[in-house]
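Researcher: Hi, I'm a grad student and pretty new to this. My advisor asked me to get structures for two proteins we've been looking at. I'm not sure of the right format, so I'll just paste the first sequence and hope you can take it from there.
Model: That works fine. Here's the first sequence with its C-alpha cells right after it:
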Amino acid sequence: MKLLTKTSRYYILYTIPVILFSSLFIYFFLLNEIGESNQSLLLTRVKVIENHLAKGNSSVLTVFEANNEVYVQEIDKNKIIPQTVKDTLMYSDIDKEYISNKMIEVNKIINGKNYHIKVWKSNIELDELMEVVFVV
C-alpha cells in the first residue's frame, strides 16, 4: 500500500508541471491563431468594400456603416495613409461596456478616387480565452 501511495504521489508531482506547461502553450497558441485569423478577416472585409466601391454599390456600405463595422470616406488624392493594424476600445450600447476591437486602416485608390477605409472587428477578451484554456 505504501508503494502505491508513493507512486501516486510521484505521478501527481510529474503531472502538474506538464499540465501547467501545456496550458501555457495552448494559451499562447490560441492567442496567436486568433490574432492571425482576425487580421486575415479584416483584410478580406477591406477587399469586399473595395469591390463594392468599384461597382458603385453604396447601399451595402451604408448597412456596414449602420452596424458600426466600417468607416469609408473619400479623401484628397495626395493624402497617403499607411496600412495600420491597431487595437482599440469601442463602447457597446448593447453590453453597456467597452469592447476590445482590432482595427485596420488603409488608403485605397478606386476608380481614380482616393478612399480612407477603416474596418474593425471585436476581439475575444482575455478572460474568455483563459476560460476556454482552463475548461479544455
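Researcher: Oh nice, that was easy. Here's the second one.
Model: And its structure:
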Amino acid sequence: MQPVGRTKVFALVAGCCIAWLAGCSTPDEAPPSADTAMTAVPSVAASDTSKPPELGRASTDAEMTTPAALEDISPQTAPSAAGRESITAPPDVPVQSSSAAESSSAAQSPTSASGPPPAASTAVISNICSLISPSDVTTAIGAGNFDSASDISIGSTRACLYTTATGSYGLTITAESVKTYLGGDLANLAPTAAIATMVTAQSLSLDDVTTSDESVAGFPATRFAGTSAVTAVAVGYAVTVVNGVAITVSADGAELSSAPTTLGSYALAALRVIVGKLA
C-alpha cells in the first residue's frame, strides 16, 4: 500500500467540507440569481402603455380627500351655502296681481286721452277706398259717374283715386297723421293754423288761387281752387283736420268741370262724406 501524500489528503478533506456545506444549505437560503433580481423589479418599459398609469390620479384623489387638504381651504375661498343656493335655485319671479296688471294695461290703452287718435281715424288712414265707394263720391258731388277706386297710398300717406273707365276726370282723397304730415309741422298746431299751413303748401303750384273758410260737421275746413301752373288745368281742393288726421280732397278734369271754383265745391262735398264717416 502506497502512502498518501499530504497534498491528496488536503484535497480530500477540502472536498468533504465542500460537500458537507452544500448538503447543509437549503433552497430558501440560496442567494437570488441575477435573473431573479432582474425580474423582481417591475419594468415600466415592459408594462402595457395602452392604459395610463393610475398611481398619479389615485394619489391626487387621496390628497384632495385628506383632512390636511380640507384644512387648506379657507372660509374666504370655500363656497358658502348662500352662494350655492344662488347658483342652483331659480330666481324669484315677481307675481303681478290682477289689479296691477289691469292698471298697467289701462295706462297703455290707445283710447286714453294722451294716446293716439281714436279707431275711426286709424280706419280712414288704413284704407280710404273701403271707407268710401265710387258711388258714394258720385252721389256726394252730384256730377260725373265714378266707377273705380284705386289705392295709391305712398309711405305714411293713405290715398284713394276715384275715376271713370275713360280716366277723363278724377277725385282724390288723402289722409295722413299730423305727426308725419309735412314732417310733423302740424303736430303742435291748432286745427285752424294746421289748415292754413296745408293750404299754403298745396297752393304753391297753383295760379289765381281763391279760398273760402268752411265748416264740416263742426270742424273747421277750407275750400280753395286755382289753375295748375304746370298743366294749366283747373283744380279744386278742400282740406280739414279731424282727430289728428290731415285730410285733403282734390278734384280735376274738364269733363267734370272747367271752373276751378266748381271743382272746389265738388271737393268740399266729398270731404263732408269722409268727415261724416269719422264723426
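Researcher: Is there anything I should tell my advisor about the second?
Model: You could mention this: The domain at 121-278 is CATH 3.40.1000 (Protein Transport Mog1p; Chain A).
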